[in-house]
Amino acid sequence: MSAMTWTIAPEPVDSAVAAALWRAYYTEVSDRWYLRYAGHRTDPVELEREIAAVSGTELTPPTGQLLVARYDGEPAGCAGVRLLDPVTAELTRVFVHENRRGRGGAPLLVTTAEQAARGLGATRMILDTRGDLVEARALYARLGYTETERHNDDRYAEHWFRKDLTPGEGLGVDMAVR
Predict the structure, then answer these.
(1) Is residue 139 very low, low, confident or very high in pLDDT (cuts 50, 70, 90)?
(2) Which CATH topology does 6-13+57-177 take?
(3) Whole-prediction pTM
(4) How many CB atoms lie within 10 A of CB 30?
C-alpha cells in the first residue's frame, strides 16, 4: 500500500474543481456563522446567491493565484492569494475538506500560498478570519502570523493577521509531500 500524498498546484478559478471547493468552503463557513448567531444553517437561496456573487477573478495571474490541494489525487482543499498593492498580498479561501483535516494539508496550503505571494512580489501577507474559526486562528499563529489591528471593513471579520514574508527562492507552487 502506498503512502497518501498531498500535491498543490495552481488551478483556474473557473474550473469545476475550483467551483466545487468554493461551494464546500462557503457552505461550511456560512453554516458555522448562521448556526452560531441564528441557530440554523444557511438558507439555500442565500447560499446560491452568495456563491454566484464571487467570481474569484481576483485570484488570477498576474496579481493573484488560486491553489488547489489534492490528497492522493483527489481535490481536498484550496487557498487563494491576491495582491492588494505591490508588496502586500492577502491570503483567502483557505479550506481543507473535513475528512482530510489533520493530515498536514492546511499548513502546506498556507506555506505554498506564501511562496506564490513572494512570486507575485509581496513581502508581507495579511488575512482576516472570524472568532468561531478557531482552527484557522491556531493554524495562522502556528505558522508565524501575528494578530494585528483591523485592516479592512469586512463585516464578518473579527481577527486580522499579518506575516512578513522573508525573501528567498522557496519551493515554487507545484509541490508533493508524503
Answers:
(1) very high
(2) Aminopeptidase (3.40.630)
(3) 0.88
(4) 18
